[in-house]
Amino acid sequence: MRLRFHKSLDDLKEKLLIVAGMAEQAIQRAVEAYRTRDLSICDLVDRSEMAINRLEREIDQMALDLLAMEQPMAIDLRFILAVIKINADVERVGDSAVNIIERVRDLQAYPAVDLPIDIPRMANLAAGMVRKSLQSFIEADAAMANSVLSMDDDVDKLNETTYYALLNVMKEQPQLTPQALDALVIARSLERVADHATNIAEDVIFWVQGSDVRHHMSVVDGSRR
C-alpha cells in the first residue's frame, strides 16, 4: 500500500515538473516574440497555455485524490500541499507569458523602436529564478530554495529602473508612448514571474523544513528580511 502511495507521489512530482517546464518555455518564447516581433511564436505560446491549464487541473485532481484516499501525514502531507500551491504559481507563469504576447500583438500597430531598457536580461533573471526554484523542488534542497528569495531583489530593482526609463521616454518622446506602455506591461509581467518563482521557493522550504517563510519573514525573530 505504501509503495503505491509513494509511486503516486512520484507521478505527481513528475507531472508538475512537466508543466513547469512548459511554463518556463512559454516565458522564453514570449520574450523572443517581443524581441523579434514574430507572431508565429505568439501562437505557440497560446497553444502551450491551453495545455498548461489542462495539466493544472489534472495535477490538482491527483493531489486532491491522494489527500482524500491516503490521508497523508507530516512531510508527505506538506509535499502534496506544496504541489497544489506550486501548481497554481506555475499556471500563473503561463498567464504572464500570455500577457506578454498580447502586448507583442498590440505592438504590431506601431513602428519598432529601440527603447532604453533590457527586457531580455530581465527575462533571463526571472526565468533563472523559476529554474532554480524548480531545481530546489527536484532536489528537496531548502538552502537552494532560500537563495532564490534574494534573487527577487535583483528583478525588482531592474523593474524599477525600467519603469523610470520608460517614464522618461513618455515625457520626452510622447509619440512613443504606446510602445513604452506595452514595454511597461511586459516588464511588470516578468516581475510577476519572479514573484511566482519566489512563491515556489517558499513552498519548497515549507515542504522540506516545515517552515513558513512567506512574505520574506524570518522564522527566527519574525522580522522582515
Automatic annotation (TrEMBL):
What keywords tag this UniProt record? Cytoplasm, Phosphate transport, Transport
Gene Ontology biological process terms in this record = intracellular phosphate ion homeostasis; negative regulation of phosphate metabolic process; phosphate ion transport
Keyword Cytoplasm in the entry? The reply is yes
Identify the main location: cytoplasm
Segments forming a coiled coil: none
Q: Where in the cell is it found?
A: Cytoplasm
A GO CC term? cytoplasm
Q: Which residues form the PhoU domain?
A: 19-104, 119-204
In terms of superkingdom, the source organism counts as Bacteria
Q: Which InterPro entries has this protein been placed in?
A: PhoU (IPR028366), PhoU-like_sf (IPR038078), PhoU_dom (IPR026022)
What SUPFAM superfamilies does the database record attribute to this sequence? PhoU-like (SSF109755)
Assembly and interactions? Homodimer.
Query: Which family does this protein fall into?
Result: Belongs to the PhoU family.
What is the role of the protein in this entry? Plays a role in the regulation of phosphate uptake.
Q: What is this protein called?
A: Phosphate-specific transport system accessory protein PhoU
- State which gene encodes it: phoU
